[in-house]
Amino acid sequence: GQMSWGEQVTGGKNVQKCFDDMIVLSDNPCAEALTLKVGYGSINGDIAALGLSNTRFIGPGQHRSTASDLSTFMASLETGQLSINGDSRNRLFSALKRNIYRKGVPAGTSGTVANKVGFIDALLHDAAIVYAPSGTYVLTVMTDGASWASIADLTRQIEALRVQ
Questions:
Q1: 119-145 in b/e burial notation, b at 16+ Cβ within 10 A?
Q2: 3-class SS of residue 50
């Protein structure tokens, strides 16, 4: 609430464009620019206030989290427990549902998925809210050296267990 969507961030992109690219395209330069604009201290304070004790923004390209923290964040987002106003919440959900990386969790479920991926070097992660026929659930898979296909397969296995 302290900057406008039209405010310039980087490379001719404003906050709105960088926000969208960061989520939909997993654009790291926009993510880093927004992180610097908001500030590590402010972000880490917000993260701590959410109770995400294993997530920390340390410096450029140095961010740490756990599947548990990411799942807690996604569950809090889905259940409306985060203090995000209606327009911003809708904008975030829209971006998560338009994520272009659909070969992980989304490929392993028959439901609609709102997800955010992360990948660098051999790390491949997918944090998702799954709106499955058997009910809504959150699934976060963090891997080192795995593939989208293995994340999709794990999702299929989890869904099969959920409907037993």
A1: eeeeebbbbbbbebeeeebbbbbbbee
A2: coil
Interatomic CA distance for residues 117 and 100, integer angstroms? 9
Task: Tell me the pLDDT tens digit for each residue of 15-33.
Answer: 999 999 999 999 999 999 9
Unique residue bearing structure tokens 């070969």 = 103
Check the CA dihedral 68-72-73-75 and report its sign: positive
Q: Is 62 helix (H, G, I), strand (E, B) or coil?
A: strand
Q: Report the predicted TM-score, pTM, of the whole model to 2 decimal places.
A: 0.92
Show the CA angle centred on residue 22, arms to residues 47 and 108, nearest 5°: 90
Residues 149, 117: Cα–Cα separation, whole Å: 14
